[in-house]
Amino acid sequence: MTQARLSVLGVIPARMGSTRFPNKPLVPIDGHPMIWHTWKRSQLSGAFDTLAIATCDEAIRDVAEGFGAHVVMTSDSHTRSGDRVAEAARHLPGDIILNIQGDEPLVHPELIRAVVAQFDGRPDVQCVNPIAPIVDEEDIDSPNTVKVVADASGRALYFSRYPIPSNWMHARTEPVYRQVPILAFRRQFLFDLAALPEMPLEKQESIDLLRALEHGRPIHVLKTEFQTVGVDVPEDVRRVERILRDDPVYRRCAAEGGTAREPSSPW
């Protein structure tokens, strides 16, 4: 008997109230608002039956609808992107739900497809997070880069904003891995996770997936060589723009249209 195909929902959470970089979803990157880059590159993956932006801000809604995105308005009380995604997902179909962070304007379409493929024929897989080796030594010590350690079976052991594993006793011989902010869930797993209370380590580190680990829920990791650059502070914008100059995915984005007009600056 042929297994029914799993439907896939992509949700891009975004809000204007970032403490480190207020209003960043609409910051212009090479003439387009950052949220356009994330949405367009996600769309290019062809992985989604439905793709939406989830926000509590009308300014984001207006810009996103202007470039053709489907937008779901959510509560302004969420402190975690996963909770915002869960709220939006209750109004949208999807067996597999991807949380693609809105401040990841270099997310790669091929990586999105690889994450979705992890669920095929594997009912034990309930949550997947790709991880990549850190190539810039500065990122190892940066609290803006979430580090990950996993066990031998490919399940996450811990996420931290501090360097893990440490090198206090021995020099590192293996790469340090960072979280790539694409979080993928089976539908019920996401809703169950959103219903659980926030936990001490989740609050201490300010990392969504620690809620799952603290409640004993397994997270599978997918090692990848795809490197992304999140926009956490204003200085990251110039870094992303330098990469975009030679980025073939960005050239496809421009070639396929859907260009967003640059919003009037709110900062």
Protein model, in words:
This protein has 267 residues and is α/β, with parallel strands linked by helices. It has a single domain, classed as Spore Coat Polysaccharide Biosynthesis Protein SpsA, Chain A (Alpha-Beta Complex). It is built from ten helices and twelve strands. Strands 1, 4, 5, 6, 7, 8, 9, 10, 11 and 12 form a ten-stranded mixed β-sheet that branches. Strands 2-3 form a two-stranded antiparallel sheet. α2 links the parallel β4 and β5.
Order of helices and strands: EEEHEHEHEHEHEEEEHHHEHH
> β content, as a range?
15-25%
The mean pLDDT is 91
Largest sheet features: 10 strands, mixed
Task: Summarize it.
Helix content is 30%, strand content 20%. The protein is an alpha/beta fold and 267 residues long.
Main traits of this protein?
267 residues, alpha/beta, two-stranded antiparallel ribbon, ten-stranded mixed sheet, single chain
Set down the secondary structure blueprint:
Layout: E1 8-14, E2 28-29, E3 32-33, H1 34-44, E4 50-55, H2 58-66, E5 70-73, H3 81-89, E6 96-100, H4 109-117, E7 127-133, H5 137-141, E8 147-150, E9 156-160, E10 177-179, E11 182-186, H6 187-195, H7 200-205, H8 210-214, E12 220-223, H9 235-244, H10 248-255
